[in-house]
Fold these 3 entries.
Entry 1:
Amino acid sequence: MTDSRELDLPAGYVELLEDLKATVKAARTTALRTINTQLIELYWTIGQGVRLQQEQQGWGSGVIKKLSEDLRREFPEMKGLSPRNIQYMTTFAGAWQGGPIAQQAVAQLPWGHVTVLLDKVDTQEKRNSYAAAAVQYGWSRNVLLNMIMNRTLERTGAAPSNFAQQLVAQDTELAQQIAKDPYNFEFLGLSGEVAERELELALTSRITETLRELGPGFAFVGRQVHFDVDGDDYYVDMLFFHMDQNRFNCTKGLRRLGEHFALAA
């Protein structure tokens, strides 16, 4: 096959190619951002419905657990429907009450960012400010957490005021996290495996080389190993057992296992 680089390209070809590449990337970012916003809207709607029932009917944790079980039975590919996550949704709906959620900065953030804001920020005004800054500056979740813990906006007074008009830039860490967010994959019924399928297949098809790279003493246990921790679902991409250390070790997956890479046996 003739390499297009060997051809005499007509005038304007390179410029058009670069424009089209930028257009494709922008369209992909827009599509991913739309999916993410739809998921955040869904979570807010679920939380709002539960919150109203809690106020009107006195729903407790037992009802939320039953609701979680019924929803997960209907949508088994959605791991974000655990009792704990539904409680987060309820807190989320109670925190963001002003206007349509899709028009607020928080709707452009991955769900992991939202839970950080709920856990680590004590007033709604500050939550809005940090959400707006995360969108404007493309902060990853770890950067957002560091900014909150350092009280950056409180010290600098640099909270953006135009967050409703901000869009997530396609070349930021935030955009990359939206593209890889397991909640978005599960929302689409893809179960979070699609993005890492090639990596996992490559690793499992060459398990001997993988173990050799990890070092001596490792034994392969399995892939996409399921853990249930207090009703929450966790999946490990690849789980190993180190015989000398007498402990399990894992690769961190699209579907999180907290921030831990090693589990005591």
Entry 2:
Amino acid sequence: MSFSIKGRTAIVTGAANGIGLAVARHFVRAGANVMMADSDEAALDREVAELSADSERVRMFAGDLRQKLAVANLVSATVDAFDGVDILVNAARQIGPTAPLDPDDTSVADLLEQNLTLPLRLSQSIARRFVKQAEGLSDDDDRIIGTIVNLSSIAGRRAHPELLGYGMANAALDQMTRSMAVALAPHRIRMNGVCVGSVLSNSLNLWLRDHGAARAAILGATPMGRIANASEVPDTVQYLASDASGFVTGQIIVIDGGRTLLDAGAVAAH
């Protein structure tokens, strides 16, 4: 089987920074057509300009994908630009604290909306597009017609009260990945996940700036003794998006330097 995604069309959300941007850049280098989606239009403009040598294979969509109309417009814009879509990477993530005992704290609902409802709604929309694109294929044609990869966090596997909403959302996203994979399999659509530990991103850098002792605590809780770079994630995403993983669905691959193998105590997960 081939790891190639050359000539395929991918939508990558959260593509203005962090892991989403790393995935988008990697996919472009791998020869894919990429629709970079994010709410940060200025950052998208800068990134697309840097990829100007590949301008025919890169487009951008700026909008709030929590809105149903924006999701529909993103799918339409991708199809208009590239005549279809083959891969969805749900990499848009929002991290924030929760006050667990404060009934007026709305962060749980907000974080569930961004980290769970958004990828669910977009996955459903893309899955319908995959099925439409497959109309006319013979019944004995068992080719995969589309793949979806969800980015989640080990915060969903550890108990961190200060990250209640974020942890809940990521645990639910992993379960969504497994359940949706079963629902989509008869339609020849695969869904898998990549669950990451601490990865150097804008949000983590800001968090470490405000929590001076956190870096040492994270390193001490990680057997490999370091924080990952965003560039270490895209190869795994490409594997799950390619034919090399053609019989893999509903699986969550963990990239955390061994962190979830240990009792990390109350160290914050990002």
Entry 3:
Amino acid sequence: MNAEKSELNNALSLQQEQGIKQFLTFIMADEEYGVDILTVQEIRSWEEITELPNSPDFVKGVINLRGTIVPIIDLRLRFGLSSAEYGSLTVVIVVKIEFEQGSKIMGIAVDAVSDVYSIAEQDAKAVPSLSESNSCEYVAGLVNVGEKMIALIDLQKTMNI
């Protein structure tokens, strides 16, 4: 617990002092995506969930997380990617997202967790507009890390159901 607080304090310190954010990255359909590590509450292995009737396809259901009912979103389906079988590498990243109405705890199902990167805000590039309807509305920016490109996710837009 103290190690988690120390890591959180280090992340906050880096953001304030140098404009550097830390991102937890994960894999979906052989591509790497990232979310601000300060939104991540915990990472859980895949478990059975309770399905909700009449919910959108990408809302897989809910889990009970220590007394809190947490909706689980399949990010592959939310992004319009092909669905995949849930397996031993599938994880749920539990995030806390701030909305105008207040904060919400939600889970996102992804293929696998990858790494944590420290990224300077000025290194993130805007997503090029491909058409009049912005099909990349869930991506806040793109950043190169070594030889790979990571799409940084805008969780507020992605999770606003």
